From TrEMBL, chain A:
InterPro entries documented for this protein: ABC_transporter_permease, MetI-like, MetI-like_sf
Origin: domain of life: Bacteria
Protein's name according to its UniProt entry: Sugar ABC transporter permease
UniProt main location, coarse: membrane
Presence of the UniProt keyword Phosphoprotein in the record: no
GO-annotated biological processes: transmembrane transport
Upper taxonomic lineage: Bacteria, Bacillati, Bacillota, Bacilli, Bacillales
Automatic annotation (TrEMBL), chain B:
InterPro entries, sorted: MetI-like, MetI-like_sf
UniProt cross-references to PROSITE patterns, sorted A to Z: ABC_TM1 (PS50928)
This protein's GO CC annotations: plasma membrane
Membrane topology: Multi-pass membrane protein
Residues in ABC transmembrane type-1 domain copies: 70-259
Pfam hit, one: BPD_transp_1
Coiled-coil segments: none
GO biological process, one term: transmembrane transport
Primary localisation category: membrane
SUPFAM superfamilies xrefs: MetI-like
Keyword Transmembrane recorded: yes
Protein name, UniProt field: Carbohydrate ABC transporter permease
From TrEMBL, chain C:
Key words of the record: Signal
InterPro entries named in the record: Bact_solute-bd_prot1 (IPR050490), SBP (IPR006059)
Lineage of the organism: Bacteria, Bacillati, Bacillota, Bacilli, Bacillales
Signal peptide as annotated in the record: 1-22
Keyword Signal: yes
Designated name of the protein: Sugar ABC transporter substrate-binding protein
Organism per entry: Cohnella luojiensis
SUPFAM superfamilies: Periplasmic binding protein-like II (SSF53850)
A Pfam family recorded for this sequence: SBP_bac_1
Length: 304, 274, 414
């Protein structure tokens, strides 16, 4: 009897301990992660120090840091990094702000909000290739879309065939699709904002803007960190859209205007079958995003 | 005051309608294109030339086993969501609300694994799956994706805002921390779990790279892969592809439309707030 | 408290690691693809990797079902890939996991890269031991699949590049005989260019550019002859037509490839190939077109596209793989492809092809002088470089001369 209750209380103390529950709860994730991510990743990481051809992986030669050295001397790599940064700098703030705005619009008590929510979500769930194809039909010379943009000083041209606009075209596509994602995440976060806070705010005579500024924004801050860093990571990883606009040419078409860190990896690692070199590019790419995410976390996620 | 309110209401609607039509346009154009013939692609030729032939092809040609592909997709998606509904919230809760040694490392593991393009680890993953004999099987398509770092990260950010008093109150009621999670936090997190399910549904349903690499038996294709195999060898049959896109997207739309109703302003955790 | 719990945590981690290792190691064996066969006698299973149309699949399935009549010891399986991209995505893993197909069909455009990487097996020895007859294929196709004196492919098709003309536009412009030289094309293109129509589509794609080069007696010489005067002249001709405003690249009109420009009546002429027939049948059934050989710059010259069956170096039974590949070139299978517009590589069927595809009759002589693409060993890199440079000029407003461009590329491919 005593041993039994002893046992029970010990079990209980385990189930109530941060250390035990913490590891127990993360264990399923960690096992799957080690098995399906870490182990494959380490293999690819080792490849980054090799001269490896996929037709004969067992014959790969160890070449030390040579792949990294070559990449860091390749001007195309820096061009790709610059393009990726440009996409992220343009797209991430816009999609975050619009995502929150749209989420607030469809969070109101209005008729047909379900339909509107669905509409805003559609671009995110439609295949990227399809959305790109349709955008390509819309953004070509002489359509009403490109003519509309001439109002803002853009030339009436086929955007994705023009080296000046192609990267912007990709950014627009990304914003367009990513808003649906941010909207639904924000929509869910808005559910968690206690309603009595707003009521108290109204009682104190706070304006709508003040309520937004001092209640909504702080409450969704952790989620904003999520939205921003995910958009950054996905922005760095844009591939399908670029592949679609360069379907019949070289990846990063026109003339490399849309080359990004990921297309650089694809081109060298997959297309030219130089797996070691491609892996090295991804490792560098990994560090770039890691640093950016780290800064974003410092900036936006003080709680963690 | 009344008029001002009404004005706000009208301008809200106007904004929604303008933004909404902007967002709907590409999909409407996709639907339109799925009903034209190859001759009319890229042209707005009016509604007289619309045809069902693209859809008909999917359901009449022996090579395209659309019902089977649909079933495969449903099974794959259901299994993945199920896993995600258990594994992700647990890890996210630990990262958000528990204080254990190594937590920071685990958190950066979560973030770090989102940053690698999947293509980089595709070859080792393929070998992994092949050695287990899981090629052309649901195990290969689902087991590696039973957790997803993206959603662990998302749920962790949601759980961070859950007041610590909840858990303390539960413990006063005699629950352990583990119990507090399953009995209190998990049910309360309904709206974020729905968000995750919707996103995971869309992501898995639409996934192409993995299923197209790990499955080579047309009987085991998922919808996206199957409908993409319909391409002609030399050129793309745009209307046919668009019909495929419409067929794939509709189920997600329905799923979303049903579950978005769960987002109702005002029902929130405020009641239990300390 | 903390100290006590270190142990269970460590145990859990160890448990997890064991799980991982067990899961990784367990099924290593038992997956070796042995061919279980009902009827006792040893059959060899050969897998063909394939991507293409449903029609092609049917042709291959039929062939697989009838192979036992010729090779009773072979069981042929067809493994379909959704697309060539998917094939190349899966292949490295398949090779590493030893589940790759034994032979595949690929085009000669860019095949050199794979051959040089050792992906395909040389067939000469196997031809001797299996006794298959490689003499039944036409010379042009056979030559293409011979690299450094070794045979690498069983040719399936051989089609020369072609030049397409929109017949109605041509007549309406009051033009006479169809052009045989680029000079004539240039003159005609000026007359054919109107407000909405360009005289000619010049897709900035290596396939098309290579044809211009060949017609000036140039070519890439597998990387050795990139910046020759002939190639410079070819590029100059292309740039001239762009400068005069009579040429267009599909991309600037928002199209994917040249065939779409042509089918939409946005250009009157274009270089192309046999696939135009099946495409135009669907995309522009009412368009009347004429087909002539690629016009001359200074000589008769164009590319030959030749699909072939190649045996993977990792194939388990290369002899059986070659036999099965060879079976795909029997007259029945070849007739099926021929009907789809693809010229057979069998000398015996050449006339039949032009009988059943009369619109291509004019290009029959071109088979004799059409040759391989001659890209450098790093074919894809070369193609990307070439396209990027041309796009930079045509779409990016750079003003590099053909000589500068080709010198720059030559420097990278010695």
């Amino acid at each position: 009897m005593t041993t039994n209750s002893n046992k029970q209380s010990r079990l209980r103390s385990i189930a109530d301990s941060d250390m035990a529950v913490g590891w127990l709860f993360t264990l399923p994730f960690l096992v799957l992660w080690a098995w399906w991510f870490f182990y494959p990743f380490i293999q690819s990481f080792i490849r980054s120090f090799q001269d490896a051809n996929f037709a004969a992986l067992d014959e790969a030669k160890f070449i030390g840091l040579q792949n990294y050295i070559t990449i860091l001397h390749d001007p195309q790599f820096y061009r790709a990094v610059l393009h990726s940064l440009q996409i992220v700098v343009i797209a991430v703030p816009i999609q975050t702000v619009l995502g929150l705005l749209v989420a607030m619009l469809v969070n109101q008590k209005i008729k047909g909000k379900g339909i509107f929510r669905t509409i805003f979500f559609i671009p995110y769930i439609t295949s990227q290739i399809a959305v790109t194809t349709v955008f390509m039909m819309l953004f070509k010379q002489g359509t009403f879309v490109t003519e509309f943009f001439t109002l803002f000083g853009f030339a009436d041209t086929t955007w994705f065939a023009d080296t000046r606009y192609a990267l912007l075209f990709v950014s627009l596509l990304f914003i367009f699709q990513q808003i649906g994602f941010s909207m639904i995440v924000y929509l869910s976060a808005l559910q968690e904002v206690p309603k009595d806070l707003y009521e108290a705010g109204q009682m104190d005579g706070a304006s709508k803007w003040a309520q937004f500024r001092f209640i909504t924004i702080p409450y969704v801050k952790p989620i904003t960190f999520f939205v921003v860093s995910v958009a950054t990571i996905l922005g760095f990883q844009i591939y399908d859209q670029i592949a679609a606009i360069s379907r019949y040419g070289a990846l990063g078409s026109p003339a490399g205007a849309t080359s990004t860190v990921v297309t650089y990896f694809y081109q060298n690692g997959i297309r030219y079958m130089n797996i070691g070199y491609g892996s090295a590019a991804v490792v560098l790419f990994f560090f770039i995003i890691m640093i950016i995410t780290f800064l974003q976390k410092k900036l936006l996620d003080e709680k963690g | 005051m009344e008029t001002k309110k009404r004005l706000g209401f009208v301008s809200n609607y106007l904004l929604l309608i303008i933004l909404g039509s902007l967002f709907a346009l590409p999909f409407l154009y996709t639907i339109y294109t799925s009903f034209v013939t190859m001759q009319d692609v890229n042209k707005l030729s009016g509604f007289s030339n619309l045809t069902f032939q693209n859809y008909k092809l999917f359901f009449t040609n022996d090579a395209y086993n659309v019902p089977q592909w649909l079933i495969n997709t449903v099974i794959m998606t259901a299994l993945v969501i199920l896993g995600n509904l258990i594994i992700n919230p647990m890890a996210a809760f630990a990262l958000a609300k528990l204080d254990f040694r190594g937590k920071k490392i685990v958190f950066w593991i979560v973030l770090g694994s989102m940053m690698v393009p999947y293509h980089m680890i595709l070859i080792p993953v393929y070998v992994n799956v092949a050695q287990l004999g899981w090629l052309n099987s649901f195990a290969g398509l689902t087991v590696p994706f039973l957790y997803q770092s993206l959603y662990i990260f998302m749920l962790r950010q949601f759980f961070v805002t859950v007041p610590g008093e909840f858990i303390e109150a539960a413990r006063l009621d005699g629950l352990t921390k583990m119990g507090a999670f399953w009995r209190i936090v998990y049910p309360l997190a309904k709206s974020s779990l729905i968000t995750m399910s919707i996103l995971a549904f869309a992501g898995t349903w639409n996934s192409y790279l993995i299923p197209s690499t790990l499955v080579s038996d047309p009987e085991r294709y998922v919808l996206v892969v199957g409908l993409n195999s319909v391409k002609d060898a030399f050129f793309e049959n745009t209307p046919l592809i668009m019909a495929g896109v419409v067929l794939t997207t509709l189920p997600i739309l329905i799923f979303f439309f049903i579950f978005q109703k769960q987002y109702i302003e005002g029902i929130s955790s405020s009641g239990v707030k300390g | 408290m903390r100290k006590k719990l270190k142990l269970p945590a460590t145990l859990m981690i160890i448990f997890a690691l064991i799980l991982v290792l067990a899961a990784c190691g367990s099924k290593n064996e038992g997956d070796n693809q042995t061919a279980p066969n009902g009827d006792g006698d040893k059959k060899t299973t050969v897998t063909m990797g394939f991507w293409g149309t449903a029609q092609d699949l049917k042709t291959y399935q039929d062939a697989a079902n009838s192979i036992s009549a010729e090779y009773p010891n072979i069981e042929l399986k067809i493994k379909q890939y959704p697309s060539s991209d998917q094939f190349w995505n899966a292949l490295p893993g398949e090779i590493a996991a030893k589940v790759a197909p034994d032979f595949i069909k690929i085009s000669n455009e860019g095949a050199l890269e794979y051959i040089n990487k050792g992906l395909f097996a040389p067939l000469d020895e196997l031809v001797k031991t299996t006794g298959v007859d490689m003499g039944k294929f036409n010379k042009a196709a056979s030559d293409i699949w011979k690299v450094d004196g070794k045979v690498y492919g069983v040719p399936n098709s051989s089609s020369p590049a072609m030049f397409f003309i929109n017949e109605d536009m041509w007549k309406k412009a009051g033009l006479g005989a169809y052009p045989t030289t680029w000079d004539e094309v240039q003159v005609a293109a000026k007359k054919l260019t109107t407000k909405d129509v360009y005289g000619i589509t010049i897709n900035l794609d290596p396939y098309h550019i290579t044809n211009y080069a060949k017609s000036f007696g140039g070519g890439w010489g597998n990387g050795k002859t990139i910046n020759t005067p002939e190639n410079v002249k070819a590029l100059q001709t292309i740039f001239d037509m762009y400068d005069e405003g009579v040429a267009v690249t599909p991309k600037s009109l928002g199209f994917g490839w040249d065939g779409e420009v042509f089918s939409n009546g946005k250009s009157a002429m274009t270089t192309g190939g046999h696939w135009y027939k099946s495409f135009l049948k669907d995309a522009a059934p009412n368009l009347k077109y004429a087909v002539v050989p690629v016009p001359k710059g200074t000589v008769n010259g164009s590319t030959l596209i030749s699909d072939a069956y190649v045996v993977l170096d990792d194939a388990k039974n290369k002899e059986a793989a070659l036999q099965a590949a060879y079976f795909m070139t029997n007259e029945k299978v070849q007739m099926d492809f021929l009907k789809l517009g693809n010229n057979s590589s069998l000398t015996s069927l050449s006339d039949k092809y032009f009988e059943s595809n009369p619109e291509f009759k004019a290009v029959q002589p071109a088979i004799d002088y059409s040759t391989d693409f001659g890209y450098p060993e790093e074919s894809k890199k070369f193609k990307d470089e070439l396209v990027n440079n041309l796009e930079n000029n045509i779409l990016g407003g750079m003003k590099k001369s053909p000589q500068e461009i080709l010198d720059g590329i030559q420097a990278q491919f010695k």
